[in-house]
Amino acid sequence: MKVKIIKIILPTILGLLTVLGVLVVLNFIIYDGDAFSKPDNGFFTIFVPISIFIAMIIQLVSLPFWEKFKSYKKVWGLTLFQFTTILCIISGLIFGLVFWERSFGFGEFIAVSITGIIAFAIYWTVNLITIKQIEKL
Prior knowledge:
This protein is 81% helix and 0% strand. It is built from four helices and no strands. It has helices at 2-31, 43-72, 80-99, 106-136.
């Protein structure tokens, strides 16, 4: 039971912290750190707890898939890499639709979607590597 709790909490926290770190670095590179001084910087105080809660639920749902990939190497005819890639693309596009500011045009949708795809790819990479390391212990 302890191992399952650790598999839910640790990969989720490490994945989210890595993604937030990358987003902070991108914020400094693209916006010169300006986004944190705007009135909507309270976004992080709302975003972080909600994303942790949602990520923990998703982690709980995804652990059985991890076990199936360990046993069968393919689930629904897909390898872990293929499954994760498709998951990141779909999640990133949904992220793009949710956070797209239509007044900025379609280019904004592309930029936000690419950011989402990269964020999900980083999250799942860190998450899956962490789970694999936990199982080696």
